[in-house]
């Protein structure tokens, strides 16, 4: 049968597509192809190198395509010779594939020449059945960019230069053929070799000279002070300059940069143009702006407008805490908001740039979360340019064998099929070259791309460390290393680009400028007004009690309700959703009280029709975790989500604001940080992050501690982010009861946040509208009761929406004679209804008053005092909470309550006993605890 195949020339005719299809079938299931073909493919699979991973079928497919192009001649060579020739050709194509897949393993990436390089047999021609005797033989190159036929020696040389020089490429993990071909055309076309003119080379030298000189100047001027030097990775500055100067030609107008400590001061001065004198003032403890607490110099952000050949580029460096990569999703959120403000659906005018450390990139889970967000509909920013400053040490003293379980620190990026360009940091031209490729790839494919800049760290982690303690051999090599500036200057002198004294003069000029606290030349635009700049002045100096009208006329409520309860003709609602929609119409008409879902929806609808954007994200936000919102409804007769989903709040009026509700990825840390970044750049929108259960915010504690609670006091960053945290003790156990109110309140100071626990539906309506309509931009945290979402007594008559506003304190209306009240019970949240019912059962309305403190911070001192004054004969004031004594609000507001008592009053407490766990897991114990503290709260003498 095999002889029959050869004699009929199936392999050498126009049947390549047919054979390729057969081979694909064979790879999926060998039994799916005829036996003669299975035997043939089995023999190919046994050939040397056929087991090469990742693309086992690619070389064979390419061989068929190329062989099919061979013209038939009148004479037929022997089948044996034919077979051997074909095997050699296939071997060449497999060699090409091997370099594409594995060439980076043999690339010259390590400036210190310490990187272990295992011998890759697949990169040896002999592995593919090719010998020295074949080096002069002409072979078809397949899809290798260049001439169609070349001697094997030339093919091998091109492969080595492209894949094993100072640049190593990883892209064969990408499934898109278009993307792989683009990268091949780009790098194979010019053999991964930059070709810059003299002016460009001089600019590169100038950039790395500035980088090195600044570090050495600081090292001698401010001895022993932390600065997290960039020395060893100076090519980073050249790369960023190249990006800024070239991105505007692609329509980019803003770059938002996120980075941790390493090299940050250098980027501030040499990339963004911060005045050296201002940096020096920070070293000397003289802040350039007065903030409540301020922050260390290597956490500070900055922004500037930089001239480029294609117009100004606005560059912002985000503020960042010591928690390294947590800034990354913050940057992504900020970029998305800026793109939204520009109505940039193509996501090309504003792009994020993230600088990472090698250990942090691989080790911190927030990067996985951020990558996971990158291609989702609600969070995508059109691709991020990642630069890993890979100093091969990691965080402080790590050995790469202890830092990760992968070969490269960048392997995590493969989860989103991002191409990875490894580059030797000692070759600044190659660094700029891959930066250009990264820029063009990002703009072409709207995807993330990673540059792994392999370098070293000249000094210890923070200049005070002695690296010889843990890395003696590495630092012996570093001590002998000339440095990238000296090596590149020598190279340019050798090329005749400049003279040695010219290179030295660059250093002197830069040092002279630093002595004056200035730049060598003006690198930023002054007095430049950007079209899309935000004016934050209207939010400065405002107070939380700023009077704001948040009610709505009845006619507006009915008109909006008619809109958001309507669906397109033929749209089949789920019976439960249809019931909800009908109930909302009745609520708008005043026929029944409004529940929380209605209150929320009314707030959103009224805001978007007035031009304010609303953005809600969380793990079940479209429907609502507790099936109360139904902002997205689904056609019960359509399978596809994109065809069967309808969002009524997007269809209210022609010129309405944007409404976006997102079912987010299952990662609280990255998502909450993202939404913080978004809210910081969108003060005119209601931006909400909703936890599925309130305690799930634990997974985002870094974002809460480092940004939400302290961003303003450290960096002067205002943010109006709203967080909705389900909270309430209903016997669901430790993990679904508490949103950790005590932790949030512990973080409250200097009017940095707003903490509310509303107990009525109308309160939710007013507080959401207040958050946008009032010129006050502080984070709002809503502790939301799950039980009250459908609790009849917590529903509100429509009159509470057409009049009034959010009430920080709700007084007692049960007592007919306030002078008879003996005890005033203060509480917050759903426990009010337990207290109310307990008082009613015991007929204690004349003895006990119940006051709801709906806003726990900023504490409404005047309003609480006014309520207490209504009961002049009450000798006891009791705080009652359903949380354990050591949790909840008690210890955080006790001092505030004590300050309001008169000399004859005593402050008491009732709640669950102190506990290591947020709540008990046994329903019987939960009920017993509830009964006990209610009894204590009601135990007033007659």
From TrEMBL:
Domain Transketolase-like pyrimidine-binding: 594-791
EC code(s) of this entry: 1.2.4.2
The keyword Oxidoreductase is assigned to this record: yes
Family matches, as InterPro entries: 2-oxogl_dehyd_N, 2oxoglutarate_DH_E1, DH_E1, KGD_C_sf, ODO-1/KGD_C, THDP-binding, Transketolase-like_Pyr-bd
GO biological process, one term: glycolytic process
Alphabetic keyword roster: Glycolysis, Oxidoreductase, Thiamine pyrophosphate
Keyword Heme: no
Pfam family, one: OxoGdeHyase_C
Top-level taxonomic group: Bacteria
Catalytic activity from the UniProt record: N(6)-[(R)-lipoyl]-L-lysyl-[protein] + 2-oxoglutarate + H(+) = N(6)-[(R)-S(8)-succinyldihydrolipoyl]-L-lysyl-[protein] + CO2
GO cellular component, one term: oxoglutarate dehydrogenase complex
UniProt enzyme class: oxidoreductase
GO molecular function list: oxoglutarate dehydrogenase (succinyl-transferring) activity; thiamine pyrophosphate binding
Names of the cofactor(s): thiamine diphosphate
Oligomer and partners: Homodimer. Part of the 2-oxoglutarate dehydrogenase (OGDH) complex composed of E1 (2-oxoglutarate dehydrogenase), E2 (dihydrolipoamide succinyltransferase) and E3 (dihydrolipoamide dehydrogenase); the complex contains multiple copies of the three enzymatic components (E1, E2 and E3).
Similarity comment text for this entry: Belongs to the alpha-ketoglutarate dehydrogenase family.
Stated role: E1 component of the 2-oxoglutarate dehydrogenase (OGDH) complex which catalyzes the decarboxylation of 2-oxoglutarate, the first step in the conversion of 2-oxoglutarate to succinyl-CoA and CO(2).
Name of the molecule in the record: 2-oxoglutarate dehydrogenase E1 component
Source organism per UniProt: Gulbenkiania indica
């Amino acid at each position: 049968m095999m002889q029959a195949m050869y004699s009929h020339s199936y392999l050498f005719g126009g049947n390549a597509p047919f054979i390729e299809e057969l081979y694909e079938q064979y790879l999926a299931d060998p039994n799916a192809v005829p036996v003669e073909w299975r035997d043939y493919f089995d023999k190919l699979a046994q050939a040397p190198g056929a087991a090469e991973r990742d693309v086992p079928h690619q070389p064979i497919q390419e061989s068929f395509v190329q062989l099919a192009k061979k013209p038939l001649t009148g004479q037929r060579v022997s089948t044996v010779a034919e077979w051997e020739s074909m095997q050699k050709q296939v071997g060449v194509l497999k060699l090409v594939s091997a370099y594409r897949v594995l060439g980076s393993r043999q690339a010259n990436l390590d400036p210190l020449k310490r990187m272990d390089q295992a011998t890759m047999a697949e990169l040896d021609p002999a592995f593919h059945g090719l010998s020295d005797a074949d080096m002069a033989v002409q072979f078809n190159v397949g899809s290798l960019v260049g001439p169609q036929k070349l001697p094997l020696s030339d093919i091998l040389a091109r492969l080595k230069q492209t894949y094993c020089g100072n640049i190593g490429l990883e892209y064969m993990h990408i499934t898109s053929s278009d993307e792989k071909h683009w990268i091949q055309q780009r790098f194979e076309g010019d053999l991964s070799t930059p070709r810059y003119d003299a002016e460009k080379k001089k600019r590169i030298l100038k950039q790395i000279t500035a980088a090195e000189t600044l570090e050495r100047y600081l090292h001698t001027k401010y001895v022993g002070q932390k600065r997290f030097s960039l020395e060893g990775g100076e090519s980073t500055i050249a790369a960023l300059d190249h990006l800024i100067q070239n991105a505007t030609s692609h329509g980019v107008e803003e770059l938002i940069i996120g980075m941790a400590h390493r090299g940050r001061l250098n980027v501030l001065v040499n990339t963004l143009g911060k005045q050296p004198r201002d940096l020096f003032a920070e070293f000397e403890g003289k802040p350039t702006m007065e903030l409540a607490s301020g922050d260390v110099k290597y956490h500070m952000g900055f922004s500037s407008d930089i001239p480029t050949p294609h117009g100004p580029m606005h560059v912002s460096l985000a503020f960042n805490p010591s928690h390294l990569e947590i800034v990354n999703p913050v940057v992504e959120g900020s970029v998305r908001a800026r793109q939204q403000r520009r109505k940039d659906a193509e996501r090309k005018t504003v792009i994020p740039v993230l600088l990472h450390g090698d250990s942090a990139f691989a080790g911190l889970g927030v990067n996985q979360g951020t990558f996971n967000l990158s291609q989702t509909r609600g969070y995508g920013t059109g691709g991020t340019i990642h630069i890993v400053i890979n100093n091969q040490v990691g965080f402080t003293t790590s050995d790469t064998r202890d830092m990760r379980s992968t070969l490269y620190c960048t392997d995590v990026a493969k989860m989103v099929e991002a191409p990875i360009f490894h580059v030797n940091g000692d070759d600044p031209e190659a660094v700029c070259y891959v930066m250009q490729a990264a820029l063009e790839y990002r703009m072409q494919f709207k995807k993330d791309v990673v540059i792994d800049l392999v370098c070293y760290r000249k000094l210890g982690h923070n200049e005070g460390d002695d690296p010889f303690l843990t890395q003696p051999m590495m630092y012996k090599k570093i001590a002998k290393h000339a440095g990238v500036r000296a090596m590149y200057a020598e190279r340019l002198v050798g090329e005749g680009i400049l003279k040695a004294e010219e290179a030295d003069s660059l250093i002197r000029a830069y040092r002279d400028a630093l002595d004056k606290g200035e730049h060598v030349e003006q690198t930023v635009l002054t007095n430049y007004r950007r079209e899309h700049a935000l004016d934050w002045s209207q939010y400065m100096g405002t107070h939380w009690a700023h009077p704001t009208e948040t009610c709505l006329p009845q006619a507006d409520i009915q008109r909006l309700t008619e809109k958001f309860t309507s669906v397109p003709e033929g749209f089949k609602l789920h019976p439960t959703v249809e019931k909800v929609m009908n109930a909302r119409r009745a609520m708008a008409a005043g026929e029944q009280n409004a529940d929380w879902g209605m209150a929320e929806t009314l707030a959103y609808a009224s805001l978007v029709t007035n031009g304010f954007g609303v953005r809600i994200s969380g793990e079940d936000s479209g429907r609502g975790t507790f099936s109360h919102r139904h902002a997205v409804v689904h056609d019960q007769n359509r399978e596809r989500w994109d065809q069967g989903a309808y969002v009524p709040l997007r269809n209210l009026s022609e010129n309405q604001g944007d409404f976006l509700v997102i079912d987010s990825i299952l990662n609280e840390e990255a998502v909450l940080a993202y939404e913080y970044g978004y809210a910081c750049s969108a003060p005119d929108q209601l931006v909400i992050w909703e936890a599925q259960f309130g305690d799930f915010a634990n997974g985002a504690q870094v974002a809460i501690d480092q940004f939400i609670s302290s961003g303003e006091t450290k960096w002067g960053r205002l943010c109006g982010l709203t967080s909705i945290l389900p909270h309430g003790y209903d016997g669901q156990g430790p993990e679904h009861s508490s949103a950790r109110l005590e932790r949030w309140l512990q973080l409250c100071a200097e009017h940095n946040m707003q903490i509310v626990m509303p107990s009525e539906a109308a309160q939710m309506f007013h507080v959401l509208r207040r958050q946008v309509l009032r010129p006050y931009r502080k984070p709002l945290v809503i502790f939301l009761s799950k039980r009250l979402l459908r609790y009849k007594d917590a529903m509100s008559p429509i009159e509470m929406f057409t009049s009034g506003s959010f009430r920080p304190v709700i007084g007692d209306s049960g007592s007919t004679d306030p002078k008879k009240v003996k005890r005033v019970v203060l509480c917050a949240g759903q426990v009010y209804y337990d207290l109310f019912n307990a008082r009613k059962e015991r007929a204690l309305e004349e003895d006990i008053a119940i006051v709801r403190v709906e806003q726990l911070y900023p504490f409404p001192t005047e309003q609480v005092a006014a309520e207490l004054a209504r009961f002049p004969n009450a000798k006891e004031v009791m705080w009652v909470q359903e949380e354990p004594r050591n949790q909840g609000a008690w210890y955080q507001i006790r001092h505030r309550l004590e300050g309001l008592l008169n000399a004859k009053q005593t402050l008491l407490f009732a709640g669950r006993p102190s506990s290591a766990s947020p709540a008990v897991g046994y329903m019987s114990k939960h009920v017993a605890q509830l009964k006990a503290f209610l009894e204590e709260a009601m135990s007033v003498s007659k």
